[in-house]
Amino acid sequence: MLPISNTVSLAEHEIELQAIRAQGAGGQNVNKVASAIHLRFDIRASTLPTIYKEQLLARSDQRINADGVIVIKAQRFRSQDKNREDALARLQALIRSATRQRKARKPTRPSRSAKRKRMDKKTRHGRTKALRGNVSRDDG
C-alpha cells in the first residue's frame, strides 16, 4: 500500500513497475543491469477518489499523457531498489500536490509614494535622454 493521505492509499496492483536499463554513464555495469524503473499508473482505472482523479487529469504535467496515465522514469540511483522507492515517492508527491489548496492571490496597488518615485525616475531619465540629442552650433 502506498499512503497518499490519512484516508487515501493506493494498492500495489494499481501501480505497474518495470525494470529497464538506465541511460548515461555507469561503466561496464550499465549495459548488463536493468537498474532504472519505469512506473505507470492509470488515473482513470484507479481507486482514487473522484476529486483526486479530476485534479490530476486537469493538470498540465508532462508526466501525465493524453490517456490519463502517469509515466515516471526513475534512474537517479545505481540500485534498482532505490530507484523503485524514488519512483513511488515521486508518484506520491504528484498525487498529493494535485489536491493541495492554492493560496488565493490578493490583488494590491502601488502606494502613492511608489507612484511618485516612479514618475520622478521617468522624468529624470527623459531629461538625460534629451541631453543626448544633437548640439546646435550658434556662430553669431
Automatic annotation (TrEMBL):
Residues 21-37 form the Prokaryotic-type class I peptide chain release factors domain. InterPro entries: Pep_chain_release_fac_I, Pep_chain_release_fac_I_sf. Belongs to the prokaryotic/mitochondrial release factor family. Residues 96-140 are annotated as: Disordered. Keywords: Hydrolase. It comes from Salinisphaera aquimarina. It comes from the Bacteria. This is Alternative ribosome rescue aminoacyl-tRNA hydrolase ArfB. It is an enzyme of class 3 (hydrolase). Gene3D superfamilies: 3.30.160.20. The keyword Magnesium does not apply. It holds the Pfam family RF-1. Residues 99-130 have a biased composition (Basic residues). Its EC number is 3.1.1.29. GO terms for molecular function: peptidyl-tRNA hydrolase activity. The keyword Kinase does not apply. SUPFAM superfamilies: Release factor.
